[in-house]
Amino acid sequence: MRNHRLIPIIVSLITVTITALTAVQLRSVGVQPNQAAPASISAQTPLPEGGGFTSKVASETTAQKDVDLYLDANEVERRAEAERSDTTTSAAAANVSAVPVSFKQVPVPLPGGIDYTVAGVGTRNSGQGVMSVRGVPPGSTLLSAVLVWGEIAPGAVSPYNVVFGQDCAAGAVVGGAALPATAEPCWNPAGQFFAYIANVTAQIVPGINGDYRIRGLRSAIVNGRCPWGDGACADPGNALTLSEGASLIVFYSNPCIPRNAQIYVNLGPQMFFGAHSAVHFTLPPINGALQNLKHSRIGADGQVGGANCGLRSIPQISDERTWIENPATLGSIQIKGDGAGLNRDSDWNGYDGEPLNKLWDTHTDVFGNGNFLAAGGGLSYRVRYLSQGDCIVWVVHILGVR
Questions:
Q1: Spatial separation of the C-alpha atoms in residues 391 and 359, rounded to whole Å
Q2: In what order do the strands lie in the sheet with 321-326?
Q3: Partner residues linked to 242 by β-bridges
Q4: What is the dihedral sign for C-alpha 240, 243, 244, 250?
Q5: In 3-state terms, what secondary structure has residue 181?
Q6: By 3-state DSSP, what share of the chain in percent is helix, strand and coil, each rounded to 5?
Q7: Angle value at C-alpha 250, between 185 and 355, nearest 5 degrees
Q8: Contact 71/145 with Cβ under 8 angstroms?
Q9: Span 172-198, mean pLDDT?
Q10: Angle 251-252-258 (CA atoms, 0-180°, nearest 5)?
């Protein structure tokens, strides 16, 4: 009889042990061996065609890019002095990247190391919006700022001017340089995705934090309606041009930042709708002695669903996942998406456009120390994505090491 009484106790102990071990496993977050992304996630709802989605089965795509802009305190000071020089050669050498930064007005020496902040807004069916910059610490010195935006448009790339400045102010006319085109993200096959970048340093206020408005983006619809249908209300169609969104990138210096902090900027755009990996070469090498790795992804056409104005989630579509990896050591950290111990939200949920007019994302995460990517030489890192039929375009990747 005593043995029968022990059975429930033993079963309870086993259950508690399994639960505890599972919890410990779920809490364990860190560098893990490189694991292949799952080929697919079981669909619960048939994927729609168009409207930003596809049911096509995609092979994994890859891209390799040299760094488009490298900055640290020494590099900013070098560029500032070269821009102030009277010689044409030095002035040209100060700004040779595709990222149109300018440091002519930057005081030398800098008060400390460098960092950046980003903010974005979705602009579908409006052609305008406000980006809210927050979190820059007091006492920071503005170094430079650039504005990027994207759209789905017909024909060849055609640079044009937009208006940018403080919200509720007149703003200034700025001209955007065109980046290479990529495939459109499953809205209208008559178009391509185009991105533009412009220097807007002169429009950033003292203190940097504030609300900034972009106006004059090309958009076939400007009444602010949602991109999809809503019950009995038909969707607005996909007449070109379809504005996607805009993001502001601001570089600054602060005495609290280590002098040897680094920033690497890589430009797209690149469309994908399955597994995709982007390898970015990092010269000078990544400094492994620094405590934090910070990464930002800016891009187009993320959403959680395509019904009820895109507010009703389709689980497998909104299950995109993101890894940051070291190609030399095969170390891998899943930083976003289901299964990630750091942040289970998706990089591509269109949150820059909440509550409506989604389709643009600006996300930043801090996820480890510099030695994770510096191990093995620190000469490259990889961003690996998994999408489940949501057509995505990454436009900018930024790696900060500080």
A1: 10
A2: 32-33, 331-336, 321-326, 380-386, 275-281, 61-65
A3: 152
A4: positive
A5: coil
A6: 15, 40, 50
A7: 45
A8: no
A9: 96
A10: 115
Contact 397, 197 (CB under 8 A): no
The answer to whether 204 and 250 have CB atoms below 8 angstroms apart is yes
Distance CA 262, CA 400 (A): 6
Quote the tokens at residue 344: 């289970």
Dist CA 230 CA 80 (whole Å) = 52
pLDDT digits (tens, 9 = 90+) for 61-83: 999 999 999 999 999 999 999 99
Count of beta carbons in the 10 Å neighbourhood of residue 179: 21
Sign of the torsion formed by the C-alpha atoms of 94, 96, 99 and 100: positive
Whole-number Cα distances in Å, 66 to 105, 260, 281, 380, 396: 28, 21, 5, 9, 13
396 close to 265: Cβ distance less than 8 angstroms: yes
**Rounded distance, CA 393 to CA 372, Å?**
27
Q: Indicate the pTM of the whole model.
A: 0.88
List pLDDT tens digits, range 314-341.
877 788 999 999 999 999 999 999 988 8
Q: Is 53:184 a contact under the CB 8 Å cutoff?
A: no
Average pLDDT over residues 254-261: 97
Residue 106: burial class (beta carbons within 10 Å; 0-12, 13-18, 19+): buried
pLDDT confidence of residue 30: 37
Give me the amino acid identity at 76. Answer: V
C-alpha neighbours within 13 Å on the C-beta side of residue 309: 13
The two tokens of residue 251 are 């570089």
- CA 244/CA 153 separation, integer angstroms: 10
Cα(108)–Cα(55) distance, integer angstroms: 54
pLDDT of residue 158: 84
Q: Which residue has the tokens 């104005």?
A: 309
The amino acid present at 204, given as its one-letter code, is I
Q: Which residue has the tokens 């990222």?
A: 99
Look up residue 267 and give its amino acid: L
Q: Measured between alpha carbons, how far is 180 from 122 in angstroms, rounded to an integer?
A: 21
Could you tell me the end-to-end alpha-carbon distance of the chain, in angstroms, rounded to an integer? 66
Three-state DSSP state, 199: strand
